[in-house]
Amino acid sequence: HTDSVLSLSTAPWDPHLFASSSKDNTFILWHVDFNDDEEIKAEKVGIATGHTNNVTRVRYSNSSKHRFIVSVSNDTTIKLWPLKMLKERTEDLKLQSSATLVAHAKDITCLDISLNDRLCVTGSMDKTAKLWHIETDKMHFTIGGMLNGHRRGVWDARFSPSTQAVITCSGDCMIRIFSLPSRDCIATLTGHPSAVLNGVIVNSGKQIISSDSGGLLKIWDIAANECITTVEAHDEKIWALQMASDESRFITASSDGRIRIWEDISERKREEEERCRAEKAHNEQILENLMQQNHYTEALAFSLTLARPYSCLKIVQGMMELKSDELLSAVRKLRAEELVVLLDFAAQWNTNSRTADVAQLVLHRVLHSFSPDDLLKIPNFASLIEAYIPYTSRHFDRLTRARQNAAFLNYTLSQMTLSNL
After folding, report:
1. Could you tell me which residues are beta bridge partners of residue 154?
2. What is the C-alpha to C-alpha distance for residues 195 and 214, in angstroms, rounded to an integer?
3. CB neighbours of residue 283 within 10 Å
4. DSSP assignment of 77-142, as one string?
5. Which residues lie closer than 8 Å to 228 by C-beta, 6 or more apart?
6. Is residue 156 a contact partner of residue 166, using CB atoms and an 8 Å limit?
7. For residue 315, is it left (φ>0), alpha (ψ between -120 and 50) or beta?
8. Is the torsion defined by CA of 227, 232, 233, 235 positive or negative?
9. pLDDT tens track for 111-166
10. pLDDT per residue as tens digits for the range 360-411
11. Which DSSP category does 243 fall into?
12. How far apart are CA 242 and CA 198, in angstroms?
């Protein structure tokens, strides 16, 4: 090429073949060889001339039955190029277009071909996207419909690989989903703060990944019409977004000079969440069994290991109902890290008058189980004790007032009894 390259496209039916389009008004076909020593060699096998302005996008057919390539340009035309002579070439092939149509009123920015090679979609700065029937037998185009609704130029348009839908991304910060049978807009996704430059449907038509000119990536739930994840992927415009064939990874390229590979961890995350749920249920069953068997000492240590404040509270309350002072013996068996967790929980319980008695009992047993020197060796012990002071003062004042009120009632009752005599 003699000017900037604007797009690349690989042939699904030949991993060694790709095409590049350029601002020099041409696109070139390349054959790549991968040697055992990992050396990559690219050979030019064909060139297409005929556009009178930048060739903005090229796309290969998805099937090898009728091999062709489609190109669009800023000259507002769409061209169809048969590739049946590619295998028979003896020198660089000069492609001849079999069909040319003026597709839009302004620059054409995007292009995609359906999986069955019967339709292609184009988007333009004229705010529209258009569908085109591809007659593979005659290698011609016919108009397939217009997709309207955007208020600014369309930057990307792509077919869903698993449903009869097309998505369009626009400078109006919106993504629209169109039904192929009716050509109607069935959903509009809003939330991007800047122009949406790319979009692709994934996960069997359930989600959309999109990118914008501010460097953001968003993942959308189509059924709920809402964004479920936003990632600050790049510092500048994300010009390219491409999904791997197995949808396990996708690639983004930005004007910040970076190309990034992203991995879909949804399945791994679901498995981790399921494992956590199963582990939680298992631990809860162990705790319940220990409490039912009145093994409170083991249950207390286990709940502290799991960091379960509510379970720990129930266990201490169960110990308080026993005649023997099991809490004292349980506290003496705790390790330093478990003791820190217990005191932290107790400080939380102390903030509520309904559980303050449990907190005070825990603190009492701790202070009577260890020497001051041992307690001061516990990390953050001083701050844990300080957390007790404000609420303990309030509880003391409340109990003092209650005691005074009770004494006043007793005095009043005694005076009433004397007067009756």
Report:
1. 170
2. 8
3. 16
4. EEEEEE-TTSTT-SS-EE---SEEEE--SS-EEEEEE-TTSSEEEEEETTS-EEEEEEETTTTEEE
5. 207, 219, 220, 221
6. no
7. alpha
8. positive
9. 999 999 999 999 999 999 999 999 988 899 999 999 999 999 999 999 998 899 99
10. 999 889 888 888 888 888 888 888 888 888 888 888 888 888 888 888 888 7
11. E
12. 9
Q: Which two tokens stand for residue 254?
A: 């930005």
Alpha helix stretches (DSSP H) within 230-355: 266-292, 296-306, 309-320, 326-332, 336-349
Rounded to 10 degrees, what is the CA torsion of 131, 137, 138, 143?
Answer: -10
Structural domains of the chain ordered from first start: 1-143 (2.130.10.10), 149-259 (2.130.10.10), 270-417 (no CATH)
Radius of gyration of the chain (CA): 36
Element (DSSP H or E) covering residue 358? helix 356-369
The whole-model pTM stands at 0.69
- Tokens at 381, concatenated: 């012990």
